[in-house]
C-alpha cells in the first residue's frame, strides 16, 4: 500500500500556527503522530497532532478556540492571563476542507511534563510489548526542543503480569459457573491481551509502532503454548466460538503460559511477590490453574491440551500464510522460509535436514537435531534454536521450559545442502540427561596403522 501524502501548501505548518495562536495554555511544542508520521496513512486516515503545553506558566483565559475553529477552520487567541499547575489533557477535532476533500484533524492537548512522563509507561494498546513509534516535530520552543524533538517515541514493555493473568482466568471460571456469557467473553478478551506481556521474557525482543503492528507481533510470538494463535483469536472475539469453547481456550492459554515462564520466576517475584514465584516453581500455581481451568472449560469443546512440564520441550504452532513447503521429497508443512534458502536444501524423505549444534566460541559439538523449512526460518529470524521432533511431530524451542537456552550466533549450510552447522551460545546443559554435550560416551578405537602425524 502506498502512503497517502498530506495536502501540499504548508498544510501542517499552517495548522501548527493556528493551534499555537488559539491555545488556552502556553504551547511549547506540536508533533505529528500516528499513521502519517509512520508513513502508513491512507486517504481516509486522521491527521493526529499532539499540542504540548506548559501548565506552570501564566496562561490565557478560556474561550475562543472552539468558536474560531468553527468559523475559520482553526482556533484564535483571546482572554486574560491566569495560573494553572494541574496536569492537563484535552482533545478537539477539526474538519478542514482541502481541494474539495475534508480532512479530519485529531488534536490532543497535553501538559508537556505529563506527556514526557507518559513515555516512561507502557502503552495501553500494545499488548504489553515495547513501543517505538515515529513522530515528527512541527514546532517547538527552544527551551523544550531538545526534550521533545524525538523522531521515535519509545515506551517500555509492560511487566509480566502473571498474577493478573491467573486472576482473569478466575473471572472466566466465575462467569462460567453462573452462566454469565457476556462476563466470560469480556474476561477472556482481557486475558488474551495480558498473555503477550507474560510471555515476553521467554521471547526475542520486538518493538511495535502501531496497534495493528502490536496485534500482529502478539500473535506471532515464537515461544508460545500449542494452539496459541487460534486460542488468542477466539478469546479476543475475532473467531466465532461458543462460550464453552471460549472458556476452554482461556484455560489452555494460561495452562500453557505458566510452564513457559517458570525459568523467569525471579522476574515474576519482582512484580507479584515471592510467594507467587515460589508457587510457580513448586507446582502450586499449575494446580491452581488446573482447578480454574476445569471450571472455565465446563462444557467446552473437549480439546484440552496438557501444559508441558518443566524439562519438556516446547510446542510452537505452525504459522499461517506459508511461503515455502517441505519440498518434493518431504511432507508439506507451511513455512515462511526465504524461497532462495529453501531451494538449496536437500531434505530427507521426512522433509528434514540434520542440524549439528556447536558452542560458537570453542567449537565444542553439543548435539544433533533436525530442522524442516519452518524450524530453520524460526531459528534464523528469532535467534532461538528451533527444531522439529520426529517422534512427537511438533516444533520445539531449545530451553524454552528447561532454561537451557541456545542463542544462535550463526548458521551455515554445507556444500550438499543436507546438513546445517548451528553455532550457539549454550546456557546450561545441551543434553536432556543434564550433561553439557550429548557426546559424553566415548567408544574405544582399536584400528591400527593410523598416521601418527
UniProtKB/TrEMBL annotation:
Pathway in which the depicted protein is active: Amino-acid biosynthesis; L-histidine biosynthesis; L-histidine from 5-phospho-alpha-D-ribose 1-diphosphate: step 3/9; Amino-acid biosynthesis; L-histidine biosynthesis; L-histidine from 5-phospho-alpha-D-ribose 1-diphosphate: step 2/9
Coiled coil (UniProt feature): none
Reactions that this protein is recorded to catalyse: 1-(5-phospho-beta-D-ribosyl)-5'-AMP + H2O = 1-(5-phospho-beta-D-ribosyl)-5-[(5-phospho-beta-D-ribosylamino)methylideneamino]imidazole-4-carboxamide; 1-(5-phospho-beta-D-ribosyl)-ATP + H2O = 1-(5-phospho-beta-D-ribosyl)-5'-AMP + diphosphate + H(+)
Keyword Magnesium: yes
Enzyme superclass (EC): hydrolase
GO BP terms in the entry: L-histidine biosynthetic process
Domain Nucleotidyltransferase substrate binding: 163-256
EC number: 3.5.4.19
Chief location bin: cytoplasm
GO terms assigned for molecular function: magnesium ion binding; phosphoribosyl-AMP cyclohydrolase activity; phosphoribosyl-ATP diphosphatase activity; zinc ion binding
Binding residue positions for Zn(2+): 415, 431, 438
Superkingdom of source: Bacteria
Co-factor remark: Binds 1 zinc ion per subunit. Binds 1 Mg(2+) ion per subunit.
Self-association and partners: Homodimer.
Annotated protein name in UniProt: Phosphoribosyl-AMP cyclohydrolase
Originating species: Micromonospora coxensis
